[in-house]
Design goal:
Shape of chain A: elongated
CATH class of chain B: Mainly Alpha
Number of domains of chain B: 1
Helix content of chain A: 25-40%
Number of domains of chain A: 1
CATH superfamily of chain A: Jelly Rolls
Number of strands of chain A: 11
Number of strands of chain B: 0
Largest sheet of chain B: none
Oligomer: heterodimer
Largest sheet of chain A: 6 strands, antiparallel
CATH topology of chain A: Jelly Rolls
Structural class of chain A: alpha+beta
Distance between the termini of chain B: 33 Å
Structural class of chain B: mainly alpha
Radius of gyration of chain A: 20 Å
Order of helices and strands of chain A: HHHHHEEEEEEEEEEEH
Chain lengths: 212, 186
């Protein structure tokens, strides 16, 4: 994994460290960090700064019995941990975690393109996309931020080439057309903070249908 | 120069918790961090009782997950900060924050005192830089790292020396990988 050239923007790593990143983006950051030592170390640096802020922050008086209560609980058995799922095939730990270890359930979007929505809430959504070799993801703009992490294959668009582990960070003014390279189908983990809007008329009509 | 003379008190306490399950050392960490964790939780809008629940959960995690503490990659305050951010999000959003896969840890880590001390020293420099910021700048950094700014509001470079710490942490990660490889664990 030494040839990752497109990393998570620093402000997103800082926001992730601080816990102020919407769930969908947090998943892409966690997945990329699982694959990229450079971003893992940079995240560690942000956490060092966060730790310094915590260390220097104002102390608040505690209830009298809190310390004794916690000390009493040290010997109590820990509550059962939810199972942890680690990397499986091309899917890094955080993706396997959200899949609870089960295989991906794809749904067809037409032209061989498939998707699997992993999580959506009011702030963000995150999905897996499967794009056959040579195929373009329908031309789309978005209303906010879009983060796309390549898990298999590669794609290129107006801004460059993205291989395994690379992240494309697109904001609202980028109208781009990612095209999957020949070879393996391109599988990506993509998060957006708003519904994608496709430029072509027909796909836009299909949007509510496919919940893109 | 003995190792104990050079590494910080917090690191020594945390290693005692990890390696000897030392309750007195844990109590020291509690005395230092619990009131600050409560302050941070209240600052984020929690009621005092809920804030103390978070403090309790974070400190219990420090005890229970102590084997994951790796002083070559994170200072105690950074490690506790990370646990507390996870915990606070789980409580506020009622969902688990996606976290990176853990790097594999050897069962009996052989810490390199020089690496620990070097990381401590870099963090000391960072603290000094943080405290020398103008109040307004410092306020922005605090807001950013206590989760009060969204990613689109975090943009200005703080000018704080994160690059040297990043390099230090990377060395720690490489050492960990070599260590695992040498023991045939990777």
């Amino acid at each position: 994994m030494t040839d990752i050239t497109h990393h998570i923007p620093d402000r997103l790593l800082a926001a992730y460290a601080a816990g102020h990143l919407e769930h969908g983006f947090a998943m892409v950051v966690a997945a990329h960090v699982s694959m990229c030592d450079s971003c893992r170390a940079q995240l560690g640096a942000h956490e060092a700064l966060g730790g310094a802020v915590l260390d220097g922050s104002a102390a608040e008086g505690l209830s009298e019995d809190l310390k004794l209560r916690v000390l009493d609980m040290l010997d109590a058995p820990a509550p059962p941990e939810p199972p942890r799922f680690s990397r499986s095939g091309i899917y890094p730990g955080p993706v396997m975690q959200t899949l609870s270890g089960r295989p991906v359930k794809w749904s067809a979007l037409g032209m061989g393109v498939r998707q699997s929505i992993l999580h959506r809430d009011r702030q963000s959504s995150v999905r897996l996309l499967y794009i056959p070799p040579g195929m373009a993801v329908p031309d789309h703009g978005h209303n906010g931020l879009e983060l796309t992490l390549v898990l298999q294959g590669a794609f290129h668009d107006e801004t460059g080439r993205f291989g395994i582990g690379d992240v494309e960070c697109a904001d609202d003014d980028l109208e781009h057309t990612p095209i999957a390279e020949e070879g393996d189908p391109c599988i990506c983990l993509a998060a957006t903070d708003a519904a994608l809007r496709f430029s072509a008329v027909v796909p836009r009509l299909l949007q509510p249908l496919f919940r893109i | 120069m003995t190792r104990d003379a050079e590494i910080t008190e917090q690191t020594r306490w945390m290693l005692a918790v990890r390696d000897q399950r030392d309750r007195a050392a844990f109590a020291r960490l509690f005395d230092h961090f619990a009131p600050r964790l409560k302050g941070v939780a209240i600052r984020s809008g929690m009621a005092p009782a809920q804030a103390e629940d978070v403090v309790q959960e974070v400190m219990l995690t420090v005890w229970r997950k102590a084997q994951l503490f790796d002083p070559e990659r994170a200072q105690v305050s950074a490690w506790i900060y990370q646990i507390s951010r996870n915990r606070q999000i789980d409580v506020i959003r009622k969902e688990r924050r996606p976290v990176p896969e853990e790097l594999k840890q050897p069962d009996a880590p052989q810490e390199d005192a020089a690496q620990m001390v070097a990381l401590d020293q870099e963090v000391q420099k960072l603290r000094a830089a943080l405290s020398s910021l103008k109040p307004a700048q410092r306020d922005i950094v605090e807001k950013a790292y206590l989760g009060e700014l969204s990613h689109s509001e975090i943009h200005a470079q703080t000018g704080l020396p994160l690059g040297t710490i990043k390099s230090r942490i990377r060395l720690g990660m490489e050492k960990l990988r070599q260590d695992l490889k040498a023991r045939g664990l990777s």
